[in-house]
Amino acid sequence: MFIHSPRKHGGMDISAVRSAIDAAILRGAPLYNAGGADACYNLYSKVAKEIVATVKDEPTSELLSAGLRRAQQCRSADDKAWAMRNSFDRCSVCSAMRMGISKGAPMFNAGRQRQCLELYMMVAKDCLRIGSTPPPGLEAALMEAQSCRDDAEAAWVLRDAFDATLSQWMGMPAPSSNDRCRGAAPLKVDVTPITFEALGDPKGGSNVSASGYSRVLLSRGERVAILAGDGRTWVPIGDALLDTGNEARTLIAPRVARMLGVEPLESAPPLQVRGVNGATSMYPRVAFRLRIGDVETGTVIGAIGGDTAVLVGRDVLAPLGDLGYTVRQK
């Protein structure tokens, strides 16, 4: 495993940064809750400026500096305080992840994958407890890691999630995918390109020939996974239904979309879906990728709605049928 170098910064180290932030929140939160949003913001901004002036770590300094700039652009003291709190929470999460990697990567490289995994799981749970906005995809990654049979693979699932957060929030480089072996890649099928014109085309296209390829898929119990919002973590979905009678788009339940960190498409109109009782609902559209059995789709334009975790419709199943796949009951 590639090791980030998080500790020697010449001044305040990462553990000291998090301690300073924790202390500021312990003092600032009661001020805010007592109606002192101004006092809370002034305290948070003072501590952030002190950290920026002391720490010699550029990613940490830039994250907090960006938070100070955002807070200064806010009009109300309430918004200013929350802008700083959000930056503090992000900094604490990134600090925890970087410290975890600095300890866990040497364990992994020394053949102690189980110890590395246990440390990463502890770090992930700690990060999910920080603040009101968890890192995108981390909860999904933790679920996937817990379902992995191989400790090394599970450790990489969490490491990928850590690296995605560090890249998104701190601009830090992630290790190359060549650093580990993932095994054979699944067959890829480009089911529906993500273009507005494709929204009206239920079948989309395919870049895989169907010649000589046939497989049976189970309507229930088939292996189905969705790529989380971090763009790296594949999350297995237990309650998925392959519904050949669903002429509408593939649907993801709202609770699953939230867990995955998958966001609705703001630029696309909502999808009108008629239920079995004849009632019509309007669902926000969403872009995502699926794995069904050994098939990996391209970008699918579906919608967020319904109670079933994932209801796979003919927008995905019809192209698979063209490739020689069939769907049957158990």
List keywords for this structure.
330 residues; alpha/beta; 2 domains
Question: Quick gist of this model?
Answer:
The protein is an alpha/beta fold.
- Strand elements, count: 14
Provide the low-confidence segments as ranges. Answer: 5-10, 176-185, 192-214
Specify the overall morphology: globular
Roughly what is the average pLDDT, rounded to an integer?
A: 81
Question: Would you list the SSEs in sequence order as H and E?
Answer: HHHHHHHEEEEEEHEEEEEEEHE
Question: Explain this structure to me?
Answer:
The chain is α/β, with parallel strands linked by helices. The protein contains nine helices and 14 strands. A hairpin with a 5-residue loop joins strand 7 and strand 8. It is globular. It has two domains: 166 residues, no CATH class; 142 residues, Cathepsin D, subunit A, domain 1 (Beta Barrel), CATH 2.40.70.10. About 12% of the residues have low confidence.
